[in-house]
Request: fold
Amino acid sequence: MLTLSILGFLAEQPLHAYELRNRISGLSGHIRPVSDGALYPALDRLRRAGFVVRHEAPGSGATRRQVFTLTDTGRQEFLRRLAEPAPVEITDRNSFMILLAFLGQLANPVAQLRVLRRRLSFYDQPAGYFYDHGRPLRADEMSDRFRRGMLATAAATKHADVQWLRGVIAELEGEITGRPERVRKLGL
Reply:
């Protein structure tokens, strides 16, 4: 999540590390706060990989600021990560939200469709938090009110996600061909 966030925000514009950390924290900080101890090593790894460059720029005072810029190679890597997200970026809600924050930067609507369809397909798989002999338990089968609450909240979230995904997929299909049924037949 951190790498995708760094690449995504730097794809929008060069940023000082402090501003980058603030933007990442704004996006995911309530879930996973970003510390300097995580950000700077990640930036250094991306710099060594050739994805970002660091340069000095004038600061507000006498101190010069270190600004990070995405390289062409970094932009290619960012777009590849958007088009081909790791399985956890599809299945983990928080990771998927980070992916969604930048998916609009992937200019290819067919590639966007593939990502959204992967998420929708993920919801087709039976899953749960609690099982009985390999079968996921439903909320109405739980005696513990807190576990019932977990399952009820998860079901409502899933329902909202699926509705949103179906709507956006239909929009993208319509934009691509003007005939959504043709897109489905092509398997795009």
Summary: The two ends are 26 Å apart (CA to CA). The CA atoms of residues 139 and 151 lie 5 Å apart. The chain has two domains: 2-79, 108-186.
